[in-house]
Amino acid sequence: GAGVSQSPSNKVTEKGKDVELRCDPISGHTALYWYRQRLGQGLEFLIYFQGNSAPDKSGLPSDRFSAERTGESVSTLTIQRTQQEDSAVYLCASSLARKKLFFGSGTQLSVL
Amino acid sequence: KQEVTQIPAALSVPEGENLVLNCSFTDSAIYNLQWFRQDPGKGLTSLLLIQSSQREQTSGRLNASLDKSSGRSTLYIAASQPGDSATYLCAVRPRTGTASKLTFGTGTRLQVTL
Questions:
Q1: Min CA distance, A63 vs chain B (Å)?
Q2: Cβ contacts of A100 on chain B, cutoff 8 Å
Q3: What is the C-alpha to C-alpha distance for residues A11 and B112, in angstroms, rounded to an integer?
Q4: Which of A4, A7, A2, A14 is closest to A76 using CA atoms?
Q5: Contacts of A63 (CB under 8 A, 6+ apart)
Q6: What is the pLDDT of residues A35-46, one digit of tens each?
Q7: Does residue B113 contact residue B14 with C-beta atoms inside 8 Å?
Q8: How far apart are CA B92 and CA B89, in angstroms?
């Protein structure tokens, strides 16, 4: 695609529910990243994919968070049993190897 | 551990002024450095990327410089416009180790007033 696409753009959920966030990277980009940005704060690294393997998942905050990627395409970030502290903008980015990083518009997650 | 600092945290300038945003990093073993802008409620837009072997990159009214030995990068914006108002972030990619560990600064919030 022309850019990194994320869906949904907004998600409101109740505490305790599971949510799935989707990222469609730029076609051909081998690297895919998930970041989290809480209100008024900086970017927090979550996980990195090279192809469909995740050599670095050190940023996932708890075992409620998981992510997968299909080949060098779509990635899904799943948050189980959501908590209010999970409320944030979840940003996805992709790049070709270690070249320029391109971000999607993010998913605004609100946990009530 | 790489630490990236951006000063000032916020800046307000009148339209037409030239301005400089600063980015400092503690570990000079970087592969590249990238500048982004973030508009409220939006994702990040890539502005410029400088490889570690380069000294500067230019795009339109933007010029980014890199002094790896001193751990500094600057983003120069010429003839600022209200549309330049946004938060500007720099991020460094390490030369070795896990390539994923881009470290972001906390940003400079720029407001250009009429």
A1: 20
A2: 34, 46, 49
A3: 32
A4: A7
A5: none
A6: 999 988 888 999
A7: yes
A8: 10
Q: A55–B100: do the CB atoms touch at under 8 Å? A: yes
pLDDT averaged over every residue in chain A: 93
CA distance B73 to B64: 7
Cβ contact A93:A65 at 8 Å? no
Cβ within 8 Å of residue B60, ≥6 positions away: none
pLDDT in tens, A71-84: 779 999 999 999 99
Q: What is the 3-state secondary structure (H, E, C) of A4-72?
A: CEEECCEEEECCCCCEEEEEECCCCCCEEEEEEECCCCCEEEEEEEECCEEEECCCCCCCCEEEEECCC
Residues in A touching B106 (Cβ below 8 Å)? 41-42
The residue whose two tokens read 């996980």 is A47
- How many contacts, defined by CB atoms under 8 Å, are there between A and B? 53
Nearest CA-CA partner of B16 in B90, B109, B83, B108:
B83
